[in-house]
Amino acid sequence: MKAIIQIESLASILVSTLWTPIFVGIFIAIVAYALWPRNKTLFDAAARMPLRED
Which residues cross the membrane (predicted)? Predict the structure, then answer.
């Protein structure tokens, strides 16, 4: 029983110390991509797409 608790504790520490910074980095990369000035025209065109009449 004690070994199971130690494995769960190890898994919890691994998740909090390894995956959290990775996901924060991915989130920052996505926000930077969305706010990058070069992508403005692409996103503006995509925003107008539902309003176009083909």
Answer: 12-36
